Fold this sequence. Notes:
The chain has 67 residues and is an all-alpha fold. The protein contains two helices and no strands.
Amino acid sequence: MTFVLRVMLYLICFVCSLYSWMAIDFSKLIHKGRTFQTQCLLVILSMGTAYLMAQFIMALMYRNVFY
């Protein structure tokens, strides 16, 4: 897979992951007034999830997992 396609896959997975993580109400878990730290946590969680999603998709495309 070319570099451009991999980067596009990572970005698409990041957007999907960020959108999914925003469904969780972090205000019940985080202290009041810590919005910057909460936003950093959300971005880090999204990046990690996007990496795992993209690696899984690339593994399915490159290796015939089902055979």
